[in-house]
Write a structure and sequence with these properties.
Layout: E1 2-7, E2 10-15, E3 25-30, E4 33-35, E5 39-45, E6 54-58, E7 66-70, E8 74-78, E9 86-96, E10 103-106, E11 110-115, H1 136-144, E12 154-157, E13 160-163, H2 169-183, E14 210-211, H3 213-232, H4 245-252, E15 259-261, E16 264-266, H5 269-272, H6 280-287, H7 295-309, E17 311-312, H8 319-326, H9 334-339, E18 354-355, H10 357-370, E19 377-381, E20 384-389, E21 394-395, H11 405-408, E22 419-420, H12 421-428, H13 433-438, H14 442-445
Parallel strand pairs: 4-11, 17-18
Antiparallel strand pairs: 1-2, 3-5, 5-8, 6-9, 7-8, 9-10, 9-11, 12-13, 14-16, 15-16, 19-20, 20-21, 21-22
Helix pairs in contact: 2-3
Length: 451
């Protein structure tokens, strides 16, 4: 049995194995509009206790509601303070494992108009009492004080997902070493991991990326150790504490990095695109010069770099294509995209940064911006991929937009490419399919002249 769950215009098909349909009924949400960070009421018929139910407010992604009161007829909940303005869908996922695509049943969803909260006027500063070089014990104590963020550190092993508090000492010490390495500004000794997938016999246009468990774990711990170091030292104007659960998962949950398989850990094409995470020190070396006053400025700086330097790869997806253009028999490693690579089949062509098309660019942004604690998710429309920046409520109309010839000719800032949630919904989730498909890349075509 399969059921389609709505996430503000997206339909997620999930297997309904050993689950019970949701008996809760959501009849009304009051008020009809509210400010981000404000309280709302959900009226209907609900279970006596919340249990594993997950109330959410969705627009192109999942945002958790903070439950203040739960009863059989009325739920009082607080909206996340960082929601962008837009028309959201409020509902309850039932039978709930955590994760944006891990719920089997849901109530009906009701509209809620959200108004953005006023921007804060103060900036972050490091804690004066925080030691510059914390010991492992001090790190553990600090992590325990992060308001539940430690519970979003999840590794998936042979027996299933394991929360940080249940990690073996070996793994906890490895995370601490990655944290200290990033805090001290040291480079990791991680190389480019082997792609152990057997891609022999795959049709042109297909490729599988799979890592050994040791390599996947090392890349994951390196990434989250770096994220925690940025938070500890307040090196960014924003904080992990700003994020709702679904966005923290993109940054901290190993299941958002890799999908565990019998033979290893795969990079899930639908979730992570065609890009392979590189060591955080290499990604941060690029990003630190582009961090702006807020996340949006940082995103635009990266998109501007794509506009100015990057090209679309040539040919069809295959191991031979990957080897020729990135000298790697798998998904392009982020560090090689940043550095630029030769095209071995075109020896007269200069070394250039290139991405694996729209699915490569969306995956590149997702992997790279993790190293600045900015979550990115991927959206698919008409077999094309688009990047979604959920913390900002912004989208690209096509992963290829930044370096498309139509856009680079305008001389415009990549700020022109960013769509708000309402525009994205109007272009890609409403109207005839032919029109939705025709809107792919529309932001680049309509950017106008800026020279």
């Amino acid at each position: 049995m399969r059921r389609l769950l709505p996430i503000a215009g997206l339909l997620l098909a999930v297997s309904a194995v050993s689950a019970q349909p949701c008996a809760d009924r959501l009849r009304e949400v009051r008020p009809a509009s509210a400010q981000a960070g404000g309280e709302i009421e959900l009226l209907g018929e609900f279970a006596d206790a919340r249990g594993r139910r997950r109330p959410v407010v969705n627009l192109g992604g999942v945002n958790d509601l903070e439950v203040i009161h739960w009863s059989r007829a009325r739920i009082v909940a607080r909206l996340p303070g960082k929601l962008a303005a837009g028309t959201y869908k409020v509902g309850i996922y039932c039978d709930g494992r955590r994760g944006p695509q891990r719920f089997l049943y849901a109530t009906d969803f009701r509209d809620l108009v959200v108004h953005a909260a006023a921007a804060p006027t103060s900036s972050r500063r490091p804690q004066a009492s925080a030691p510059a070089q914390p010991s492992a014990l001090q790190f553990e104590l600090w992590l325990s004080q992060l308001g539940g963020i430690a519970d979003e550190l999840v590794w998936e092993g042979i027996d299933g997902p394991v929360l940080y508090r249940h990690w073996p000492e070996r793994q906890r010490q490895a995370l601490y070493r990655a944290f200290r390495r990033s805090l001290d500004g040291a480079s990791s000794d991680l190389g480019v991991p082997d792609n152990i997938a057997d891609n022999r016999g795959l049709a042109e246009g297909l490729i599988h990326q799979q890592l050994r468990e040791s390599d996947a774990e090392a890349l994951y711990l390196d990434s989250v150790g770096h994220s925690l170091a940025l938070e500890y030292a307040a090196r960014l104007p924003w904080s992990l504490r700003d994020y709702p659960l679904a966005q923290l998962e993109v940054l901290l949950d190993a299941r958002e990095f890799f999908a565990r398989e019998d033979a290893g850990y795969a990079v899930d094409f639908g979730m992570s695109g065609m890009a392979l995470q590189s060591p955080a020190s290499e990604q941060w070396a690029f990003l630190r010069r582009r961090v702006g006053e807020d996340r949006r400025q940082t995103i635009v700086a990266v998109l501007d770099w794509l506009r100015d330097t990057t090209m679309h790869f040539e040919g069809r997806v295959s191991v031979a294509t990957m080897q020729s253009q990135w000298q790697y028999p798998g998904y392009p490693p982020v560090a090689r995209v940043l550095a630029g690579t030769p095209h071995l089949d075109r020896p007269t062509w200069p070394v250039r940064p290139r991405t694996a098309g729209c699915f490569g660019t969306a995956g590149f942004l997702r992997a790279l911006l993790r190293s600045a604690n900015i979550p990115v998710t991927m959206v698919s429309t008409c077999a094309h991929y688009q990047a979604h920046f959920p913390s900002e409520g912004l989208y690209l109309s096509h992963g290829d937009d930044p370096y498309s010839g139509e856009f680079t000719a305008t001389g415009c800032s990549a700020e022109r490419l960013l769509l708000d949630a309402n525009t994205f919904q109007a272009w890609f989730r409403r109207g005839p399919e032919a029109q939705r498909c025709a809107n792919i890349g529309r932001a680049a075509r309509e950017a106008g002249g800026c020279r």
